[in-house]
Specification:
By secondary structure, the protein is an alpha/beta fold. It contains 16 helices and eleven strands. The chain folds into three domains: 150 residues, 3-Layer(aba) Sandwich (Rossmann fold); 33 residues, no CATH class; 97 residues. Helices cover 47% and strands 13% of the residues. The strands form four sheets. The protein has a five-stranded parallel beta sheet with strand order 3-6-9-2-10. A two-stranded antiparallel sheet has the order 1-11. The longest helix has 14 residues. The relative contact order is 0.15.
């Protein structure tokens, strides 16, 4: 396994590193990953859910043998849960111990109570910890789910890999983290943050790439089944659905079919397992029955199809 003392020095090396973790990518995606590492710039990845954005961070961390620090974004996320907070329980206990001892020096007590030993470091502060001897991979996942105000907390970190805590001063990274930011584009991210990042859109893979992903992730799957699953998923993505299945659903469906001891697709088994690929009842009802039979027939007759846009990568 590659170590963080030997970061990839070429685009091809990035592809090889990710491939060692069963993440299949092409040059168009390996390029911005390489530049993010080389230039120490955050990489902002957008794309539909399930196309492999989060998995890039996991694969990088595993391939580089370094820590993955993940900040999962959600509505209401604030500085106390993302950067730092004070351990109030320990501070109160310390105050009571000081009072019991008597002769409390107020200034000395304040300095002690707001020292680093009472500081709880959350993911963003952990990622720039000065004690680190290697850069971690910092994953800021689904930033579009957080409130817009939260983006302001990130600007100082992304610009200079530093965070200022009023009581303690500025923390700076000795080894800046490799930052991966993902978004499903449920809302637009502010330009101020985007300007600090490299950018790449990850689309659904084409037939050949998705088949490679299935073969890499589920090598025991029968060859015929893998091809049929991939072909059917490609057809399914051409349908007007509320939520198009991603690569993760392709892998889940393949694993489920193997658990059912299936070696090839049939209309009946597809109808029975639509809930693995589709997560909305309206979508299931729209394709169940005759549409499934038609898509299966087309996928068998037409062979490999291109993706909806092509490019990118997959877990």
């Amino acid at each position: 396994m590659t170590t963080t003392t030997s970061l990839p020095t070429t685009i091809e090396a990035v592809q090889d590193l990710l491939k060692s973790q069963d993440y299949i990518t092409d040059r168009s995606l390996a390029m911005p990953i390489f530049l993010a590492i080389k230039l120490q710039r955050p990489l902002f990845l957008e794309g539909e859910a399930g196309v492999g954005k989060t998995e890039i961070a996991r694969a990088l961390a595993a391939g580089l043998d370094t820590e993955l620090i993940r900040l999962q974004c959600y509505e209401g996320l604030d500085i106390n849960h993302s950067v730092y907070e004070w351990n109030y329980t320990r501070q109160v206990l310390e105050i009571r111990l000081m009072e019991a001892a008597g002769n409390v020096d107020r200034q000395a007590a304040t300095d002690d109570l707001f020292s680093e030993r009472f500081l709880i470091k959350r993911p963003l502060l952990q990622a720039i910890d000065e004690s680190r001897d290697r850069p971690p991979v910092l994953l800021i996942d689904e930033l579009d789910r957080a409130d817009e105000e939260f983006e302001g907390f990130l600007l100082e970190l992304l610009a200079d890999f530093q965070i200022t805590i009023p009581e303690l001063g500025t923390f700076r990274a000795v080894h800046p983290p490799i930052v991966i930011i993902t978004s499903n584009r449920t809302r637009e991210i502010h330009d101020a943050l985007k300007r600090r990042c490299l950018y790449h859109w990850i689309d659904y893979p084409d037939f050949q790439k998705e088949l490679q992903i299935v073969n890499a992730k589920i090598p025991d799957a029968p060859r015929r089944l893998s091809q049929q699953v991939t072909g059917f998923i490609q057809e399914l993505r051409e349908t007007e659905l509320y939520k198009i299945p991603g690569v993760s659903e392709t892998l889940d469906w393949t694993a489920a079919l193997m658990a059912l001891d299936q070696t090839e697709l049939s209309p009946e088994v597809i109808d029975d397992t639509l809930g693995i690929m589709l997560k909305y009842q309206d979508d299931i009802e729209q394709v169940r029955g005759e549409p499934v039979r038609a898509m299966l027939e087309r996928s068998r007759n037409q062979g490999p199809r291109r993706g909806r846009r092509g490019g990118g990568g997959g877990p």
